[in-house]
Amino acid sequence: MAGEVVGTDLTGLADGIAQVANGSISPALSVSTTTIPHSTDPGRGILLATVPASLGAPHMVDGSYWGRGDNVKRTLSDDEVRRLLAARLGRAEGFETRLRALSEDLDPISADDRRRGHLYKLLEPSASVLDRP
């Protein structure tokens, strides 16, 4: 059974999270925070930290790369880190080629009839479940 949420002292908490995200983790993480104030104590509350999926993963902390499972985090082996970095590089390097192929293959206006610029979109996931160690 869940207990009552009582909050915590918010003094410096958001700054501490930002310092860790920007100083202790490489590459740095983008973290946004939202404060939910306590109903009767202005110095207390809940700090919600949101960390979006990172295109820079995996991230190193204290000299180790970390992966997460459903319930635990663990250090990644050198082979796992190499595989993740290679997958990230492959996605980045091939994107422009795939975008150019898309514009050439699927443009409904022939190259001879084009008089104005075009906007092409290619949306791809930055990671998949298969990328998780």
How would you describe this structure to a colleague?
With 133 residues, the chain is α+β, with helices and mostly antiparallel strands. It has two domains: 1-52, no CATH class; 54-107, no CATH class. It contains two helices and seven strands. It has a four-stranded antiparallel beta sheet. Strands 1-4-3 form a three-stranded antiparallel beta sheet, with helices on one face. The longest helix is centred in the last third of the chain and has 29 residues, at 78-106. 2% of the residues are buried.
Mean pLDDT: 82
Bin the strand percentage.
15-25%
What does the largest sheet look like? 4 strands, antiparallel
Shape: elongated
- For the biggest β-sheet, the strand order reads 2-5-6-7
Briefly say what this structure is.
This protein has 133 residues and is α+β, with helices and mostly antiparallel strands. Helix content is 31%, strand content 20%.
List the helices and strands and how they pair.
Layout: E1 8-9, H1 13-24, E2 25-26, E3 32-37, E4 44-50, E5 60-61, E6 64-68, E7 73-75, H2 78-106
Antiparallel strand pairs: 1-4, 2-5, 3-4, 5-6, 6-7
Note the main attributes of this structure.
single chain, 133 residues, alpha+beta, 2 domains, four-stranded antiparallel beta sheet, three-stranded antiparallel beta sheet, 2 helices, 20% strand, elongated
